[in-house]
Design brief:
heterodimer, A: 107 residues, mainly alpha, B: 140 residues, 81% helix
Amino acid sequence: MTLLITIFAAIISTIVWYTHAPKSVMKVGMLCWLFWGASLMWLVDAVFEYLELGAAYFTPAPQDMLNDAFLGLCVVALALVIWLVYVLIKDPKGVMKSYLIQKNKEM
Amino acid sequence: MGCFIVPATEAVVTTVATKVMERKHKTDCAAEHQECSSNEATQATRLPFVQKLKWLNHLLWGGSVLLCFEHVWHGEVVPFFPFLTAAASPEETAQMLHEMSTVGVTMAVAVTGVWAVMVLVSNAMEQAAIKEERFVKQEK
């Protein structure tokens, strides 16, 4: 489930990136790298698990599936937080900069 | 257990390599300014290799960070020494090292392989774009 959720996140972020390419003001490309990197690594992990468990890999216990789905959602949330912090620091639209300057002038 | 350590180590190496190559590229361009500007047309169509190496950095770092979180989730990585719970006993350490040498190495190889394919495809696309540009110029 974690792999599946991450792959869907990677696909969605890539579509969003492509829609706004080549001018990616919101730095969505960073999200793509995060999700695709993790997806590839989890895919390898899944292949190893499949080799070990066989067909049983595709019939996980409901509790394991729920836990994996919860983990997948948390991974997506973490990636979004990382991206948000990155965007705020890079400040591609200059919003933070102008906000800080305005605050300084008010003081 | 600690499989993400292998791609994370590769990420450190490729990041250092990128920084070194970037510095070298800038120095070379400053030293041979004329040559760099004369190749402007080609430079505009072709992405420098350093830029492509950054793709690998991003893939490796992105994957390693999210996998590290997964390991924290499963209680395999802890915020205190020795940081990896498997390092507590020799048997678990051996198991961790085995996992790193199999799953971890395969992860690093898979990501690098995908990146290599991306570089090859982008090179072919750049080559096609240059050819098209030349053809348009000749027609004019």
